[in-house]
Amino acid sequence: MLVKTFGSAVFGIDATTITIEVNLAIGVNFILVGLPDSAVKESHQRIKAALKNNEFKFPGKEITVNMAPADIRKEGSTFDLPIAIGVMAVSEQIIADRLDQFIILGELSLDGALKPMKGILPIALQAKKEGFKGIILPKENAMEAAIVDGLDIYGMETLKEVVGFFNYDSDIEPVKIDILKAFENQLNENDVDFRDVKGQTNIKRAFEIAASGGHNVILIGPPGAGKSMLAKRLPTILPPMSIEESLETTKIHSVAGKIAKEAGLVTHRPFRKPHHTISDVMLYNVVVE
């Protein structure tokens, strides 16, 4: 018997949908193929313990799991949940009639709890592009995924909740947010403000010219003169981000795991403050992350 579930992998700031094929045959073995890394290979033990601790059965037969496309390296523990659901579907513990409509994501704890993950926004954008109905993922990531309009986002806390959803035993509602309203509400929420700067008249004038004209600016002075303090407040006088800029910035922060669970969009222009002794390699990492 063969069952397919769907997960996703992030490469750079773009996502690729991964088809997880689970086949049940005579024998006693667990075979995982499709270029999985060590974290993916270890999913066998996490899934087995999670099923047992939630009073489900791990089939005592030969289970073959193929992750397609097979020539793409699969990394991370977010494939735990789609593999577990595939194993349960192929062993007829859940109803499989809706598996092809959802991207399923999440790392499993041994007690069946779902742990949050990184890179949700690009996954949600790709899922919408490919015509999936929705995404099932850890509850902590639901607000981030709900940014993408046109998808049903179900935030789950445990494996039991996911099983109940597919078996029609759950009345959980999808997470919905008004992206435009959320964007507008967060635009003026800043931790710092340019008005906090006292004095420094000439430098403030230079910042205003640089911000309005899109120019570069360099600050030179002794420690404690206020260079970092001023630079940190420069983004607050830049033009507000457009919704497109916000989504693009949020994608990068999502892959880097820098988005708070209560926040969906990144609505403020990023500010980074590497030390002046930083190496070229570390500077690249700061820019990317």
Helix content bin: 25-40%
Query: What's the arrangement of strands in the largest beta sheet?
Result: 1-2-4-3
The third-level CATH topology of the largest domain is Ribosomal Protein S5, domain 2
CATH architecture of the largest domain: 2-Layer Sandwich
- List the secondary-structure elements in sequence, H or E: EEEHHEHEEEHEHEHHHHHH
* Number of alpha- plus pi-helical segments: 11
Low-confidence stretches: none
Number of strands: 9
- Beta fraction of the residues? 15-25%
Mean pLDDT metric: 89
Shape: elongated
Radius of gyration: 23 Å
Q: Please indicate the count of domains.
A: 2
Query: Which secondary-structure class do the elements indicate?
Result: alpha/beta
Largest sheet: 4 strands, mixed
Gap between N and C termini:
43 Å
Q: What is the CATH first-level class name of the largest domain? A: Alpha Beta
